[in-house]
Amino acid sequence: MTKRIGLFGFGVVGQGYFQIAKKQKEKWIPDTIVVKDQKKRRPSDIKFSYHAQDVFDKNPDYILELISNTEEAYEYVTEALKRGITVISANKKLLSAHLPELISLQKVFGGKLLYEAAVAAGIPVITTLETHFEEDTIVSIEGILNGSSNYILSRIFNNGLSFDEALRMAQQKGFAESDPSFDISGSDVASKLNILILHAFGKFVGEEQIATFGIQNLGEDEIALAKSLGLKIKLIAKAEKDYRGISAYIIPTLVEESNLFYGVENEYNAVKINSEHLQDQFYQGKGAGSLPTGAAVYGDLVKARNGFSYNYSKVNFDKPLDEKLLNLGIKVLVKCRSEEIIENNIFSTEFIERVDGFYFAVGKVKPKSLNKLNELKEVSLIALPDYLSAEDILHELKEIQKSGELI
Amino acid sequence: MTKRIGLFGFGVVGQGYFQIAKKQKEKWIPDTIVVKDQKKRRPSDIKFSYHAQDVFDKNPDYILELISNTEEAYEYVTEALKRGITVISANKKLLSAHLPELISLQKVFGGKLLYEAAVAAGIPVITTLETHFEEDTIVSIEGILNGSSNYILSRIFNNGLSFDEALRMAQQKGFAESDPSFDISGSDVASKLNILILHAFGKFVGEEQIATFGIQNLGEDEIALAKSLGLKIKLIAKAEKDYRGISAYIIPTLVEESNLFYGVENEYNAVKINSEHLQDQFYQGKGAGSLPTGAAVYGDLVKARNGFSYNYSKVNFDKPLDEKLLNLGIKVLVKCRSEEIIENNIFSTEFIERVDGFYFAVGKVKPKSLNKLNELKEVSLIALPDYLSAEDILHELKEIQKSGELI
Ligand SMILES: NC(=O)c1ccc[n+]([C@@H]2O[C@H](COP(=O)([O-])OP(=O)(O)OC[C@H]3O[C@@H](n4cnc5c(N)ncnc54)[C@H](OP(=O)(O)O)[C@@H]3O)[C@@H](O)[C@H]2O)c1
Ligand SMILES: NC(=O)c1ccc[n+]([C@@H]2O[C@H](COP(=O)([O-])OP(=O)(O)OC[C@H]3O[C@@H](n4cnc5c(N)ncnc54)[C@H](OP(=O)(O)O)[C@@H]3O)[C@@H](O)[C@H]2O)c1
């Protein structure tokens, strides 16, 4: 039986979906495609509409929401769910902001919402959390969740490019937007981690609560330090749960060769799940791009057709969905221009040292401070693995300074 | 609604399942547990039976088949499927031998059969092939699928143990059976690859057809060679499909650091899938052990309860399920005591060289020859990556001989 499909958005993801759907036995070609910009040149053999209502007028079985805007996506998706229509979305910003409401709408009106492409694109992490881990207790979930940032870090560590050169290259390759701030500030990752936390721990924490620091201020000094220690820096997102509650943070992190994330390069994403029974699992796949994301959307459609939906099995619907995150300190190396910033934000400080006009310190930072520091220019933080002592870091910084590599 | 569960087998996997089921909200404690050996000491607080009929007499909703024997498993599983009962099995030997019939029985009588634990234990590879890749075209599937062999190789490469010491250690740790031949000869892997081929390519090839060579004859010389080249040896299973058909082989393989399998150590398993749309995916997880396998069985039960079953979506049921594999040559380094073996089995030979009583050669081997050679003592083969030339290998062998490391 042919299904009627309405599609919103015909950009990177929408075109990827379209290209894939055309080749299948079950073509699932949308009967309506709504886009926004009336002046844009489009393929002449496809009919486009500029009115959302055109999608709803056709009484579609499925709606694909693949647009770049969040507010309008919210309107389309809630409207569809209120009509009991099943929706596939790739929109992490929308989902991260409105999941609790979107879950209720599914319950009340019976339409389903699937969104595998929204987190780690091609990696089936949400489906796997919902099925394979349904009755297992998750201890932690950790990931490299932004392809652009990871691509930039790969160019810096493997090709010796500067941050700015690497960013330009990511933009040329189409991995980073012309305004890349969502990608490199960690904001995109915070949306994704927020969604994963709901599926892993059954709680909605909201991305504003997640301690987030991006790679935007990463300087030559931290890069030289990592290299001289034989380590790499990766933008790691991590959420864990223990008897006290959930903690979650996103921060550039020093990783050693034995860490599975060490080998995750370029536009790849990866997810590590630690659970009580299945213990360690690691998944790696393409984190962005037209075909992998389009395939994830098509895959959701196939799953929905087969009757699959998210159970939100970790959620206890008799209790509030919202949860306050733990306020635990994270051990970091901080670099900035002012000693005050360190004094006001870093505690358990192990050293403060002035090197070439910068202050360097090792100490701990609380989630709230991290979010504030992420807004400042010229402040750089990286998380340190436990085995690295402050003395090791200080020693290495001085060595780098001596050898003149530090700017 | 409580479901009635019948359990066959209370060994490593059965006990893992039981331990997990006891802790859940939905306990799913089997009402009948059938085991075999009447003399074995058992926990006194659990009731056991020694008669398969006891399971069927209770009219169970689900049967878990977790026994070590294949013939009796065949009887229980076919009996259950004929009664339309849903079965969870971890028995790769059974499945690999009888999948076509077991698929028909599901179709005819409506009972379902799930078996995630049978391949790569905790990694949800079959479910992922059936859902996420349902409408994607798979190009190749590759894996480290035997925890014991991989554990042995890790001890050899990371701790400098000899093969025999490493095997003893694997047995002490419970990763290898007291008769480890299934594990180290590649036979266990062949069953698993045979099952994966059905889910990835929709064809049943039969494990006898799969070119298989184990690690049982791996000698100091090949190990020294790999080490001096900065490589590791991993027992890699690979199946790929192109316009000509499917090829499949299992063989110890030289892998370089940039290969994701390089970092898969100890009892871990890993699977790499390359597909047209999702491109590269890589999954790693525990490949053996009581909790990971028990959790995979429990997970299957949850999936079955949720209405999930394998679609065998790659299978074209209008065509024969059986398929002949391609007979392509594989580039190998062979070591043996007789020049005749090389002449009779290796073609496109690039060199034959006598070193310390052994003949070494680089050339190609056909699947049928590989299977014959796997039966012989003192014949060792490793697959070579394309970039390594015969000259490089020969040069390195001579260097090793000079430095006296070669026995
Ligand atoms: N790109 C990736 O690799 C990737 C990966 C995972 C998730 N995502 C998510 O997928 C979604 C789409 O991303 P994208 O990369 O495909 O974006 P994109 O290339 O910028 O394309 C966005 C599309 O949405 C359309 N659009 C914007 N506002 C609209 C509205 N109000 N009504 C109808 N159409 C509207 C645009 O129309 P015009 O054609 O008229 O401009 C365009 O076709 C986003 O939520 C993004 O976060 C993207
Ligand atoms: N171990 C792993 O990590 C692993 C991983 C994946 C898949 N598997 C598969 O899972 C299955 C079970 O493996 P295992 O490691 O749990 O084996 P195991 O530890 O040797 O236990 C086998 C169990 O099967 C019982 N049994 C044997 N024949 C029986 C029969 N005819 N009727 C009833 N019970 C019978 C045995 O009974 P007694 O107690 O009376 O001896 C024992 O309880 C095998 O197919 C294996 O290939 C194992």
UniProtKB/TrEMBL annotation, chains A, B:
Q: Which family does it belong to?
A: Belongs to the homoserine dehydrogenase family.
Q: Is the Oxidoreductase keyword given for this protein?
A: yes
PROSITE patterns annotated for this entry?
HOMOSER_DHGENASE
Which UniProt keyword terms apply here? Amino-acid biosynthesis, Methionine biosynthesis, NADP, Oxidoreductase, Threonine biosynthesis
Underlying gene: hom2
Q: What is this protein called?
A: Homoserine dehydrogenase
Q: In which pathway does it act?
A: Amino-acid biosynthesis; L-methionine biosynthesis via de novo pathway; L-homoserine from L-aspartate: step 3/3; Amino-acid biosynthesis; L-threonine biosynthesis; L-threonine from L-aspartate: step 3/5
Boundaries of every Aspartate/homoserine dehydrogenase NAD-binding domain copy: 9-116
| Major enzyme class | oxidoreductase
